[in-house]
Amino acid sequence: MTHQEKVDAFVNELAQRGVGKYTTAPPLYRLLWRLGIEVPPPHFAGFWSLTLLMGVFFAVFWGLFMWLFLWRGQDMPIAVGIVVAVIAGLLFGATMAAYYRWRARKLELPRWEDYRAG
Fold it and tell me: Crossing angle, helix 27-34 and helix 3-16, to 10 degrees?
């Protein structure tokens, strides 16, 4: 079974269990898979790797958005904007990591290496 087939089977299995497809496979992960990066779905990632991946993604895009549409017009120093974006990214990443780790325990999921569809 290829990585993508395994991911598709997992998404379908959790959809049957009532978990939304975009919760099981968020847009960031779908992008990584399309780029050929074989990361496991977020339910199988560790707390710190989830915090880092989701936090960095959020910090970069949210920080750029805030800078372009709000902070630049308020003459906020760029260093302050970077610090605020990093803090927001850490909070977002930790929150998402806690959610996915809690959800994986609740669903009684095995490790990704041990996951078998069905």
Answer: 160
